[in-house]
Design a protein that fits this description.
The chain is of the alpha+beta class. The protein has a single domain, classed as Lipocalin. An eight-stranded antiparallel β-barrel has the order 1-2-3-4-5-6-7-8. The longest helix has 19 residues. The protein is globular, with a radius of gyration of 18 Å.
């Protein structure tokens, strides 16, 4: 009996802990999404009104396990630009609530034609809406965060440097 209570409490702690690491969803609109978004390390997403996008440098960790990186790609030195189309969606199965997912349909990755789907989550961080790209299970909190630029963002030279996040890091480390 005591063992059952201890196991139940441990499991509840794991599940409750995972839930509290999540940020609240933001309700995204086309108008709010269109424009430039940038990480602290300098990677830039540009979302256009015609539902196309380009990004200067995606994190290779999101794509390497599926064999989508070009041969000879060096994640420490090479950038991973991409382009494609986007759409704003509700979470899977939701018929109400915020449109908090930005579906990305990549058509080019590192100047190679591809057909890859992934998504960004629109979330609230403090009072700001951010776009989050999770690198694995969202409960692990390994993520890349994009912040809306007041005007056009400019990609930082060598924005691939310092892009390996760790659990709990909400912003990528600046290049050293």
């Amino acid at each position: 009996m005591l063992m059952g209570i201890v196991v139940a409490a441990a499991l509840a702690g794991c599940f409750l802990g995972a839930a509290t690491s999540q940020r609240p969803p933001a309700d995204m609109t086309d108008e709010a999404l269109v424009g430039s978004w940038q990480t602290e390390s300098g990677a830039v997403f540009v979302f256009r009104a015609d539902h196309t996008f380009s990004v200067s440098d995606l994190p290779p960790a999101k794509f390497e396990k599926y064999g989508n990186l070009p041969s000879g790609f060096d994640p420490k030195h090479d950038q991973l630009p991409a382009s494609g189309t986007w759409e704003i969606l509700r979470p899977p199965g939701a018929t109400a609530g915020p449109y908090s997912r930005v579906g990305l349909h990549l058509r080019s990755l590192a100047q190679r034609p591809v057909t890859i789907g992934t998504e960004l989550l629109a979330q609230k961080e403090d009072q700001e809406t951010v776009l989050t790209l999770y690198l694995g299970d969202p409960d692990s909190d390994v993520r890349v965060v994009y912040y809306k630029c007041a005007s056009t963002c400019v990609p930082a030279p060598g924005s691939s440097a310092g892009r390996t996040p760790t659990a709990g890091v909400t912003r990528l480390a600046s290049p050293t």
